[in-house]
Design goal:
Elements lengths: L1 E10 L2 E11 L4 E5 L6 H9 L6 E6 L2 E2 L8 H7 E5 L10 H10 L5 H14 L15 H13 L5 E5 L7 H18 L2 E5 L3 H7 L2 E6 L2 E6 L8
Parallel strand pairs: 3-8, 3-9, 6-7, 7-8
Antiparallel strand pairs: 1-2, 1-4, 4-5, 9-10
Helix pairs in contact: 3-4, 3-5, 4-5
Bound molecules: adenosine-5'-diphosphate.
The site of adenosine-5'-diphosphate has 10 residues, from helix 1.
């Protein structure tokens, strides 16, 4: 599903990714932990092709991400949904419009948009707020909209980069439970970069730990351990 082979990313002399060899299977739920600057975001960026690696390969199913042709990039983007700490919602659009937009840019038929947007808003529990603007929502609700937006094109993979970094503990748990539910119900592969030690220790999933651009631990049913 996701495989990296001898993956390097250098900024000047700084190896932000230093020989990353990783395999994440279909329907897995994985935590990616490690201190700030460990390379977690950069690893995600090489997977969804916001950055090209300096050397090595990233495979998403049969697609070699660094070697994609221009026309294949939308194919990759449909396979991978991404959510961020700061939600990145369009503030002049409503909840519904924020989610519909990512179908519109892929030229999906209107009928499909009208069907799938309410379905995915219902999944995250926000259908009743579909006409609100992001500023009218709490942080947790905004993150749920960004999850709906990431899921609406039915990706096989969901990458979550510090999704609870701006949220209080109770709301963080709600978001993590939602990601777990999505993984269970839709069989979406979910990779969550997080500093939330409590969540990692309680959920007992596979934990991949990075430090200074390397993978330093990879445990099933892992615990959060300090670098
Ligand atoms: P994490 O997500 O684990 O906090 P990042 O992947 O964001 O780590 O960053 C890893 C390192 O790469 C940091 O030292 C950061 O300063 C550096 N870095 C990230 N992006 C760039 C860039 N565009 N130019 C130079 N250095 C960068």
């Amino acid at each position: 599903m996701i495989r990296t082979e001898k993956l390097y990313k250098l900024y000047g002399n700084n190896a932000v990714l230093n020989n990353i060899n990783l395999q994440i299977g279909k329907s897995e739920f994985v935590f990616l932990i490690g201190p700030n600057g460990a390379g977690k975001s950069t690893l995600f960026k090489t997977i969804y092709r916001a950055e090209l690696p300096t050397r090595g390969d990233v495979l998403v199913d049969d697609l070699s991400v660094p070697n994609l042709r221009r026309w294949q990039i939308p194919v990759l983007r449909q396979r991978i949904g991404v959510i961020f700490q700061d939600y990145k919602l369009l503030k002049y659009k409503t909840v519904y419009e924020n989610v519909a937009y990512v179908m519109e840019v892929l030229d999906k038929p209107l009928e499909k948009i009208k069907k799938q947007v309410p379905q995915v808003l219902d999944l995250v529990g926000l259908l009743r707020k579909k006409d609100c603007k992001p500023a009218e929502l709490s942080g947790g609700e905004q993150q749920k909209v960004s999850i709906a937006r990431a899921l609406v094109n039915n990706p096989r993979i969901l990458l979550a980069d510090e999704p609870t970094g701006n949220l209080d503990p109770d709301t963080s748990w709600e978001i993590m439970r939602l990601l777990d539910l999505i993984n269970e119900q839709r069989k979406t592969t979910v990779v969550v970069a997080t500093h939330d030690r409590n969540v990692v220790d309680t959920m007992r999933k596979r934990v991949i730990k990075m430090s200074s651009g390397r993978i330093v631990e990879d445990n099933m049913l892992g615990k959060y351990t300090d670098a």
